[in-house]
Amino acid sequence: MEKRLDISVVVPLYNTSTYASADDDQITQMLALTQAAVDQTNAAAAADSSTLLGYFSGVVTSALPEVYAVLGSTYSSDSNAPSLELIGDSTVTSAFTAEGAADTIRGLSIGQAAAVKYNSYALMAALRLDPLSLKALDDLRGQVLNDMKGEELSEALTAYGASLEHNLSSSAMNRMPASKIVNSSTN
């Protein structure tokens, strides 16, 4: 299971003051402006992940006022800081619902960036980095273990619960309807 550390900036596809949604032309314009910033990142020859992250953050953040202006919104620099998130393929599949978005993100090489409309209400500028280039393994351990074993553990617990013996007395169940059982922990 491949893991990636994606640095992303999410841009809402609606006016943040009026909540009016972007039309197709506005989405295309916003995506083109974001893509121009991403292209600058892809053209940069950064020596290390930290330098590339700083460049990506600066270029994309400087493009955001113009991107937000397409919808008549005002960009606030404290509202959209780049976020670092370790994501696996299942997250990409479930979160990137716009056509081609998941494939674009999966296709990124380390150090490469892309701009995608990833669902019906947002677009994203994303940069792929090696997870261990910016964070220590100890910092990532909890999330990695959850990503790797979370579903397996859930399935194992479900199977174990289903296999447990139950000794329900049908005569006792007939005498005391469930509606009369009081859960003392909720009172």
Write the SSE topology.
Layout: E1 3-12, H1 24-43, H2 49-69, E2 83-88, H3 89-95, H4 101-106, E3 113-119, E4 122-129, H5 131-134, H6 137-163, H7 170-175
Antiparallel strand pairs: 1-2, 1-4, 3-4
Summarize the structure in words.
There is one protein chain. The chain has helices spanning 24-43, 49-69, 89-95, 101-106, 131-134, 137-163, 170-175; strands at residues 3-12, 83-88, 113-119, 122-129. With 187 residues, the protein is an alpha+beta fold. Strands 2-1-4-3 form a four-stranded antiparallel sheet. Helix 1 runs antiparallel to helix 2 (49-69). The longest helix has 27 residues, at 137-163.
Strand-pairing-aware structural class: alpha+beta
The total count of strands amounts to 4
Strand order in the sheet with the most strands: 2-1-4-3
Classify the helix fraction into a percent range: 40-55%
Query: How far do the termini sit from each other?
Result: 46 Å
Query: Could you describe the largest sheet, including whether it forms a barrel?
Result: 4 strands, antiparallel
Estimated radius of gyration: 23 Å
> Which consecutive residue ranges, at least 5 long each, have pLDDT under 50?
none
Q: Count of DSSP helices?
A: 7
Q: Approximately what portion of the residues adopt beta-strand conformation?
A: 15-25%
Mean pLDDT across every amino acid position:
79
Give the overall form.
elongated
H/E series, N to C?
EHHEHHEEHHH
What's this entry about, in short?
By secondary structure, the chain is α+β, with helices and mostly antiparallel strands. The chain is built from 7 helices and 4 strands, in the order βααβααββααα.
